[in-house]
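Sequence in, structure out. Go.
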Amino acid sequence: MSTPALLEVRDVSVAYPIWGGIFRRRVGEGRAVDHVSFTLHKGETLGLVGESGCGKSTLAKTIIALLRHTVPGVRYEGQILFHRPDGSVVDLLALTPRQMRPMRSEIQMIFQDPFSSLNPRMTVAEIVEAPLRVRRVKGRRAIVRDLLARVGLDPDEQMGRYPHEFSGGQRQRIGIARALALRPELVIADEPVSALDVSVQSQVINLLVELQREFDLTLLFVAHDLSVVEYMSDRIAVMYLGRIVELGNADAVYQTPGHPYTQALVSSVPVPDPNVDRSNRIQIKGEIPTPLNRPTGCPFRTRCNIARPSCADTVPELEPTPTGQLVACLFPPGGQMERPPAEA
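Output:
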């Protein structure tokens, strides 16, 4: 990327505590994120994809420092470097809660569940105005009206309503308006369409694409649907059991996946064509292992259809492939995947 780096995640690990015994002592931990590194450039969208339990939401919440308030005893390693507009670089993991507060005007999050992420006792105007009020921004009412109009809501009719009066898609639009209120540099979208009806998902996705261009946003887009991520993203990072197993240009990852796990994800994407041959679809057997009992060596080897005995001895590192991706596999299969381009 020719644009400067906005966020650098360097060798980040996150471990949840395990409490046990009569006195509730820490008896162990489960590593949900395991030595993850990537760079997010200004103005781009990086898609973070993987099945449930792979650690992608944990990583997203770690970046914005939400876990330290909700999970007592959570342990971090590594660095998350945020490049501010004034040229300074801040390690988000090293900040105290008080020091993190000013950063929240530059980093915002769109949450997965639009039903629980909005305060039911506040009107739409109060919800969107809240971050502006905290920062003591002048002309707040006009800004709220403009934001609601930009996300497709009618300020005259809907500013005074409460969240329960809206559909799921409308609530997510309210959450998007709130996230954009302070004109952040980085927006983390944590599965923003997974709780919505399929008919509404494309509307919200297209809205995010439009707003990114309009506000010059940098997006970390977290999802489990690879076709949605491919449509939204410039680059894709594929996570499995807390590790990134493939990272590269969105088209390359989608069309020529280099890791067997990515190949299986691409193979599982539905194709609306009854004439497509589905006999070669790759099926992943078994369940994703628990972080409490990780396999030795390659984390995917227990479910991989090309695993060899040596895969149990070495944890593969991300290495470049002929098609340009970085792939963490000792024996990358490669190969062209015949798939039509994704549509929203």
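Check: The radius of gyration is 21 Å. Residues 50 and 224 are 5 Å apart (CA to CA).
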